Amino acid sequence: MHHIILEHDTDFDGWRKAARSLVLNHVSPSDVTWLVQGDAPELFEPTALPPEPPNGTFNVPAKFVELAKAAILHRNHERFALLYRLLWRLRSHHDLLMVATDPDVAQVAAMARAVHHDEHKMHAFVRFREIGREQNAHYVAWFEPEHHIVELAAPFFARRFADMPWSILTPDACAHWDGHAVSITPGVAKAEAPTEDRLEETWRRYYASIFNPARLKVKAMQTEMPKRYWRNLPEASLIKPLIESAGRSASAMIAGAATEPHKSQKREEPPMVRKQAADDIEALRDEAAGCRACPLWKDATQTVFGEGPQAAEIMLVGEQPGDKEDLAGKPFVGPAGQMLDRALDETGIDRSKVYVTNAVKHFKFVPRGKIRLHQKPNTSEIRTCRQWYERERAAIKPALVVAMGATAAQCVLGKTTPINKSRGRLIDLEDGTRVLVTVHPSYLLRLPDADAKAREYQRFVDDLKIAAAHLRRSVRAA
């Protein structure tokens, strides 16, 4: 009998290595016991894997690997043995996974579905609570997964909440995001999770306000949101009384008099009229102040238009205004602007002689308490705002446009452009204007490693030196 002891409950790589060696040495599933480190009784000593025979190899369908990676996260204690038995059978029946009625195939498929279902529930029912305030804020959530899905589900939260540091605590394992990478640590007790934050009552009031008793379907709601998840939701205390009072509330709504539709609370804005012959920067700035072409104006403080002389030889284009720029109404006055000023100074470029603007003219952000966290503009917003960049360039007629960052490059070149493949060389536009692509200064601020930051800053300076040399040539030619 072979006793295989894996390092942890989700040790897919360890299982795959052991399973491969056992199959190649013709070890029957009935001769293998699968255990996990820490759970194995002392009487079981791990068996050294038999050496793989020379040139030993075999193939399995890619679908099996996909199923196994999911099914191994299930809490079924027999999952390792079941997967090995299915692997053993696949050697002689390569199309076995196509037989949906086969007991082993059906059970593994059901386990994989259960894991993905649990992953979906984690995505839906994790509720973060704020710890600390403003720049020191950290967001913590407690969740009790049915299966071993923390590491599987964590990338979703890293993408969805990329701008905030968070931790998801569970009894099995904890996931943490610092803005750069996800880390996994051992599980903790629920007592270590926060119970409430300053926005809890606000969320409960909001939930109560959107609850519609006339459309309540309890069975459907409990199917989508099983009771086992209720205890970890801020609105949990409201669910039962809202359900119990739904009948009375719906009757009162029916008996009540019809109400007039709510009038819009926003002042009606006149449609923007585009001037066909606005070739003066000040006239363009005045016109852009009333831009309502995309929804970003609703939350931004003001339009942040470009700044600089109309006769500038160089036009610098960034992504969008940040928090400081939105409040000041001027581009590149925050931390990224300070980084840009420093680099321009090192390359001998006088900022007062270049025109500085952004691809998108309104600040796009996500509110986090009193902090407004930058959010990247999407393609639709870039395209909608591109008319202002085009009209700025037509008014200024620069010899060189420096596109800083992917958003700026997409705006200037009219297509998605990889930065690293395009930076450091001049690109010619149809009208003779030349384009230089480089990184955005804010990229340098986000680098956590001091050596990497210094190295990338020097590359940024080297890119701007190309612009400086182009400017000197233009001056000599004039």
Describe this protein's structure:
This protein is of the alpha/beta class and 478 residues long. The chain has four domains: 2-120, no CATH class; 126-192, no CATH class; 200-247, no CATH class; 281-477, 3-Layer(aba) Sandwich (Uracil-DNA Glycosylase, subunit E). The protein has 17 helices and 14 strands. The protein has helices spanning 12-24, 62-71, 79-90, 103-125, 150-160, 200-210, 218-224, 236-244, 246-255, 281-288, 323-328, 335-347, 379-396, 406-413, 419-422, 441-446, 450-477, and strands at 2-6, 32-36, 129-131, 138-142, 166-169, 173-177, 182-186, 314-318, 355-358, 365-368, 371-374, 400-404, 426-428, 434-438. It has a five-stranded mixed beta sheet, covered by helices on one side. A hairpin with a 5-residue loop joins β13 (426-428) and β14 (434-438). The longest helix has 28 residues, at 450-477. The chain is globular. Mean pLDDT is 85; it is low at 269-278.
What proportion of the residues form beta strands (DSSP E)? 5-15%
Give unreliable regions as ranges: 269-278
Q: Given the helix and strand composition, which structural class is it? A: alpha/beta
Per DSSP E runs of 2 or more residues, the count of β-strands stands at 14
Radius of gyration: 30 Å
Percent of residues in helical segments?
Answer: 40-55%
**Biggest sheet: strands, sense, closure?**
5 strands, mixed
CATH superfamily of the largest domain: Uracil-DNA glycosylase-like domain
Instruction: List the domain count as a whole number.
Output: 4
Count of alpha/pi helices: 17
- The CATH C-level name of the largest domain is Alpha Beta
**End-to-end gap:** 88 Å
The name of the CATH topology of the largest domain is Uracil-DNA Glycosylase, subunit E
Strand order of the largest sheet: 3-4-5-6-7
What do the pLDDT scores average to?
85
CATH architecture of the largest domain, please?
A: 3-Layer(aba) Sandwich
- Tell the overall outline: globular
